[in-house]
Write a structure and sequence with these properties.
This protein is mostly helical. It has one domain. It starts with 8 loop residues before the first helix and ends in an 11-residue tail after the last helix.
Length: 167
């Protein structure tokens, strides 16, 4: 286990807060899709213009595949969200979130010449909310925040290193 002796309590609190906020975003997005009977990833996938665009659009052409992708997307978002919020299996939840966000980014990258007809809340170039959240999950995957505050602490025990006092 890596040593985290130089991390002070307020830094752990900030990392846990970041984990919970990202978890809430995943959980909310998944739940919103469940309660919207008209939601489907079809519109998002058919808009794909970059890497794997042929694969993404082929999913839309196969209703059974689309249904599976929709269920995996919703279930994945809910499981990732719950894992991050509760601090349960945080590293696997982070890794799953990274993969999911990478797929979102690849399907709809904010690059010059890739104009999407999907509504967005701002103007982006290279960096969008998916990439920011993905980078945040990379950072969170490197710190055992679930063993500081979460179910991982109850299951696997508290972090064994001492937390230093304020510098």
């Amino acid at each position: 286990m890596a040593k985290f002796k130089s991390i002070v309590p307020w830094q752990w609190a900030a990392l846990v807060l970041l984990r919970v906020i990202i978890g809430w975003h995943f959980l909310y997005e998944g739940m919103a899709k469940i309660f919207n009977p008209y939601w489907s990833s079809a519109n998002y996938l058919v808009e794909a213009k970059w890497l794997f665009s042929d694969f993404f659009t082929s999913i839309v052409a196969k209703p059974n595949w689309l249904k599976i992708v929709d269920l995996l997307n919703i279930g994945g978002q809910i499981a990732i969200g719950l894992g991050l919020i509760t601090g349960f299996l945080v590293t696997p939840a982070c890794l799953a979130g990274i993969i999911l966000l990478a797929l979102y980014y690849v399907a709809s990258p904010p690059l010059i010449g890739f104009k999407s007809s999907m509504p967005v809340e701002g103007s982006y170039l290279i960096v969008n909310k998916n990439l920011v959240e993905l980078a945040s999950l990379i950072v969170l995957s490197l710190f055992p925040t679930g063993r500081v505050a979460g179910l991982d602490r109850l299951i696997f025990g508290p972090l064994k290193t001492k937390v230093s006092k304020e510098e």
